[in-house]
Design brief:
2 domains; five-stranded antiparallel beta sheet; 160 residues; two-stranded antiparallel sheet; single chain; alpha+beta; SH3 type barrels
Length: 160
């Protein structure tokens, strides 16, 4: 199947199934690595997940010769999804560049500290992509709860 690049997508790397597109076709994942740490990654197809934070650090060290590669990678492509999205286009572009670098480097490449960049999908534990900041729950399921919430001056209307 031939893939066509649409607006907002950038062609990166290449695999036997053709180029991988960063944008609508890239699947960002939160996963628990072999050491049990929560990380963000990109599903690279062929049953592999790429650790984007580690790939960014390696790119900063090897390609841009940054001495503070770990600190910069943590700021640019943080190891959690909420922080990545809070970083806006800067972080998403950093993640895209890290993914491109990892794909070009190959799946036998190790991170700056000897950790893997590529994980077998079946060797990691996938987690919820984004952990919510707050859970908001009202007790509006029962009339008594509604009456109690009204008496307490609950700031939001609760519909029974």
């Amino acid at each position: 199947m031939k893939r066509h690049k649409s607006k907002g997508q950038r062609e990166i790397g290449s695999q036997s199934s053709g180029p991988l597109l960063f944008g609508a076709f890239t699947r960002l994942v939160t996963f628990e690595n072999l050491a049990g740490a929560s990380r963000i990654g990109a599903y690279a197809g062929s049953g592999q997940v790429i650790d984007l934070n580690s790939a960014c650090a390696l790119r900063l060290r090897d390609q841009q010769h940054e001495e503070a590669f770990d600190r910069l990678a943590n700021a640019l492509v943080p190891p959690n999804m909420r922080a990545l999205f809070e970083g806006g286009d800067t972080s998403l572009n950093g993640a895209s560049n890290a993914l491109d670098f990892a794909l070009k480097s190959g799946n036998r490449t190790s991170g700056c500290h000897g950790e893997p960049l590529f994980y077998n999908l079946y060797a990691v534990r996938l987690r919820a992509p984004v952990i919510p900041k707050k859970f908001f729950h009202t007790a509006g399921n029962f009339r008594e709860d509604h009456e109690e919430a009204t008496k307490a001056g609950f700031s939001h209307p609760v519909m029974p």
